[in-house]
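hey
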């Protein structure tokens, strides 16, 4: 396996990502879309998810493809970001055909970032407009860290953020991940190394190496504001291999291994940890190796999200960069 050209989910041909954020609000939206509808499924392992149009991604449901996926801040308010994306896609003629009407299919998931120091005294919900803006910004290149849905993300000890990573397998299949890291737990060990260090390629999140002495640690800090729906890490893994909807479901399950490798603890009752899985290509690949690569990419993407975070006025926790 080798790192993809951009080390990004957009190494999967045809995929594009757009960000939009309000720095005063300390929140934002990230949208994944493609040149054509793509196959997708989802697996939820956290105890407090916030979602929209998730049931239709189950393998037994009739919808075979979606037009976009939305990752948003804002807790339940952020689910309105998908409305802005739906409107934007409708305006360009995208969507599931029902007679002469097009209905864009846009599942969404949110993180809780309402206690991160940003101003939340808005009168009109800002997330639909942010969703529409993120769709318009969709491109192969996009910013990481404190951008898009990662703008106001936090972990137990440090700012979270938006991260991505990719791999090209020996058979030429590309696998990648996109994540908003906002867990109740930690992404770094008590000694300040990344839990995901064993998966790092080069210096993509600092080249700091591992901290084996901390791997058995059980008494770790958690967010002091921890309560139901107060956290959550949401992710998308993608491949250019041709997968069925049930195979995408299995890929989403495998991806959660990467979350557990990079966040301690993960999948708690207070997190809404969720992974979408996307097939956007026609290549033939080994589902076992694709699942393994997806977990590896997701672990790396989580570490990159924290590594790339940048400070802003009013932050409630420091950035990883402040440790160095």
């Amino acid at each position: 396996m080798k790192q993809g050209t951009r080390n990004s989910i957009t190494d999967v041909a045809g995929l594009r990502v757009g960000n939009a954020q309000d720095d005063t609000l300390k929140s934002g939206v990230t949208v994944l879309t493609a040149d054509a509808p793509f196959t997708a499924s989802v697996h939820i392992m956290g105890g407090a998810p916030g979602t929209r149009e998730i049931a239709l991604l189950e393998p037994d449901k009739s919808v075979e493809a979606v037009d976009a996926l939305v990752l948003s801040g804002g807790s339940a308010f952020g689910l309105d970001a998908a409305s802005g994306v739906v409107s934007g896609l409708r305006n360009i003629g995208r969507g599931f055909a029902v007679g002469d009407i097009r209905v864009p299919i846009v599942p969404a998931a949110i993180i809780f970032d309402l206690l991160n120091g940003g101003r939340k005294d808005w009168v009109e919900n800002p997330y639909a407009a942010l969703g529409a803006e993120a769709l318009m910004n969709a491109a192969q290149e996009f910013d990481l860290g404190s951008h898009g849905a990662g703008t106001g993300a936090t972990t137990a000890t440090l700012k979270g953020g938006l991260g991505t990573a990719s791999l090209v397998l020996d058979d030429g299949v590309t696998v990648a991940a996109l994540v908003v890291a906002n867990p109740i737990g930690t992404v770094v060990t008590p000694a300040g190394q990344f839990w995901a260090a064993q998966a790092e390629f080069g210096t993509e999140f600092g080249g700091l190496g591992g901290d084996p002495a901390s791997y058995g640690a059980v008494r770790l800090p958690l967010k002091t504001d921890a309560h139901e729906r107060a956290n959550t890490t949401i992710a998308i893994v993608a491949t250019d291999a041709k997968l069925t909807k049930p195979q995408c479901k299995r890929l989403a399950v495998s991806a959660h291994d990467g979350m557990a490798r990079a966040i301690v603890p993960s999948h708690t009752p207070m997190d809404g940890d969720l992974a979408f899985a996307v097939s956007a290509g026609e290549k033939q690949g080994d589902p076992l190796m694709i699942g393994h690569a997806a977990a590896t990419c997701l672990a790396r993407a989580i570490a990159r999200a924290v590594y790339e975070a940048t400070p802003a006025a009013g932050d409630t926790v420091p950035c990883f960069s402040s440790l160095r």
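The helical segments are 81-91, 127-136, 245-262, 287-307. Residues 2-323 form a domain with the L-amino peptidase D-ALA esterase/amidase fold (CATH 3.60.70.12).
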